[in-house]
Amino acid sequence: MKTAVPGGTSVLTRLKYLALAGLFMAASGHAQQPAKLVVGLPAGGSFDTVARIVAEKLPNHLERPVVVENRPGAQTRIAIQAVKGAAPDGSSLLVAPGVAIFLYPHLFRQLNYDPFADLKPVTQLVSWDIVLAVAADSPVTSFNEFQTWARQNPDKAFYGTSGTGSLQHFLGVSLARRLGTPLEHIAFKGGKDAVTALLGGHINAIVMDAGEVVPLAQAGKLRVLATFSAQREPALPQTPTMRELGLGELETSGWAGLYAPAGTPEPAIRKLNSAVNDILALPDVAKRLSELGMRPAGGTPQAVDALARQQLEQWRDTVAQSGFVVD
């Protein structure tokens, strides 16, 4: 049945009908506007892949398209600025590495965002192990031997990481201080470059995400001496944790979280949290994340916020004492 405006109605009434129709069309169009998962790193990397795994499943829960928008640069700060300034309606979300929340406030003199005031946590997305490794042909076969070797060879005690100011960088700083052992940091442009330098004999150790190392360790090219995470790396069950080695204060995992702009209403946060937790519980999602060297995390907004605040305090003194600050 068609509904028409009666021919005898006034001009004012006709305008009201047209206005209501326009509002209905605008609302319908808005409902179909895609939500964005903003990633501060280039397409093709691990964070981008995590975002795309989630974005693929989210439309089933949100009843709207979801796209991934890569805004690389300035160590994810460009992406954070974009989401910080977005409308707080759940349409722009940030896939953020944990370091952008708990480490960068200590690292950058001009951060230009407050992660606890400008962003609202939705959930933790993934976590992953970080390990200390040497080449397979290294004379060092255990963590205790590494400690002894480093003390005896201070001119050779270099460790490589994926970059200056990374969590791995400061894990090495903390490890050196805790052991009373000089360890010189060598920063590379990425994990693969650091691994290549290790295999080529240019450095003697790396502190690296497990995903970069485990396949090479399983192939007999690297030897993992310890993991910084709370539990043993499942793919390397014989490798002890730092806590098992008496260094529990170094216990840390890498992680990434999902964040919305501050001011996003609680009902929208709850809906997003429920949807993403459901997605992370899917077996095929866990399998795909495992291939990246990651584990699905999930949990409440309060849990990821508490984790970030705890790690904010954990790294305050280490970064300050290192003297490493970015202008």
UniProtKB/TrEMBL annotation:
Question: What are the alphabetically sorted keywords of the record?
Answer: Signal
Q: Is the Signal keyword given for this protein?
A: yes
Gene3D superfamilies linked: Bordetella uptake gene, domain 1 (3.40.190.150), Periplasmic binding protein-like II (3.40.190.10)
Chain segments annotated as transmembrane: none
Pfam family for this entry, one:
TctC
Source species, domain of life = Bacteria
Q: Which residues form the signal peptide?
A: 1-31
The family note in this entry says: Belongs to the UPF0065 (bug) family.
Listed name of the protein: Tripartite tricarboxylate transporter substrate-binding protein
**Which organism encodes this protein?**
Achromobacter aegrifaciens
Q: What is the lineage of its organism?
A: Bacteria, Pseudomonadati, Pseudomonadota, Betaproteobacteria, Burkholderiales
